[in-house]
Amino acid sequence: MLMFISPLPFSSSDSSLSPLFLSISLSLSFSSDLQAQSVSPPAEYSVRLVDGTTSCSGTVEVFYEGEWSGLCNRWWDMMREVKVVCRELDCGNPVAESRGPLVEYGRRGVTPYISCYGHESSIRQCDITGGPGFCDGEYYRHVTCSESVRLVDGAGLCSGRVEVKSNQSWASVCEADFDWQDAEVVCGELGCGAPAALQGGLYGEGEGQTWDKEFQCKGNESLLLDCDTSDRENNTCLPGNAVGLTCSKHDDVRLVGGGSRCAGGVERYDQGEWRTVGAVKNQEDVAAVVCRQMGCGSTVSIIPGNTTRVFRASCYGSESSLRECLRSYDLLPGLTVICSDLLVQPDISLTDSMGGVFRGHQGPEMFRGYNFTITCSTQPQYPGGSFLLTFTGSNRTHTQPAVNHSAAFLFPAADDSHQGNYSCVYDNYVFSHNFSSESELLSLVITGN
């Protein structure tokens, strides 16, 4: 709004400036000064994301001593610091955290040590030590959060109650409005693997509003809000029906060069390429997370590899996946991990040469008096080893060396004593440890001649 003041006196030398012009000019200047005074600066250690593809992704900047500066903190945790950044910006779940652009030499940055628990509403509530500095040779931090969907009250980044952002607030989703194809889109949007469980009330009830549409995803959309929706037939969502979702872990970790998917050098897919993973003091915790994420049991041994530029991980040991650990880049020995489920499950089969085997209602059946053979076999992972054939009908066991990764156990003249459950146990000594793996049960019924 323009404020008019009375004309000021002016001399003949100022004849080009009319009183009205001076009034308008002074009014605009006065209004601008008031407007500038009304805008307060951000709070110290506020955060923002810049140069990203969405409002919830980009390079992290921190407001410190009156200006925005890039953050080049080396250690960030997806479940702690990154989770707080996403929450402070009213975004969804952390999706990715990586190094951003290289810091220009001599450029001022912010290098504090920020330590969060993960429940804080802003970075300012975390423990912060340090301040401005130079980040020569370092990289800024880059964060990606989901924009309009999140999983809350779950055990990790890939499980929880589904909530959708609507009119700047978060709403839970009713189980009746959400199906398996919708779940596929959410899991993909959050950087997780395929859906593993979908159930109402699985992760509690939301305290706010409920989403009032039914999702109709095809399963190939990139974002949940890209899916078609329709009006809900029933306008109420009964208690216990807020949908909970568990996604499998993303396949971004592998073990290479060990002859098994559960043994070898640890690599993580990061920024478009597979990078060697290393650790310093907490190698046991890192290895435990790797074996857990791979579904390979527990850690048996850890072998240091060659020193190289690695993706350095620091874990507490309780994380469900490696991307939930602290990460940085460093010159360290790579990490080779051997997990307990090293050997694949062997196969067990029943054959005979005289036609005495046939398939009954409960499984394979054998005529009395006929010869039969039980064969144990496994995939060609490692040379050697042996097979133990166990029989639950008695304490009898049979052992044979593995020849070409298999062993055949011959039984003459089947009788009632051969009826029962059989299994193959494959044993092998590799990586200076004994490993074993057991097949499924084979139930054999002996019937009349």
TrEMBL record:
Disulfide bridge partners, by residue number: 116-126, 217-227, 315-325
Domain Ig-like: 346-443
Gene Ontology cellular-component terms listed: membrane
A Pfam family reported for this protein in Swiss-Prot or TrEMBL: SRCR
Subcellular location: Membrane; Secreted
Top-level taxon in the UniProt lineage: Eukaryota
PROSITE patterns per UniProt: IG_LIKE, SRCR_2
InterPro entries with a match to the protein in the record: Ig-like_dom (IPR007110), Ig-like_dom_sf (IPR036179), Ig-like_fold (IPR013783), Immunoglobulin_dom (IPR013151), SRCR (IPR001190), SRCR-like_dom_sf (IPR036772)
Domain SRCR, residue spans: 47-146, 149-248, 253-353
Topology with respect to the bilayer: Single-pass membrane protein
Keywords for the protein's UniProt record, in alphabetical order: Disulfide bond, Glycoprotein, Immunoglobulin domain, Membrane, Repeat, Secreted, Signal, Transmembrane, Transmembrane helix
Keyword GTP-binding: no
SMART domains: SR (SM00202)
Name of the protein: SRCR domain-containing protein
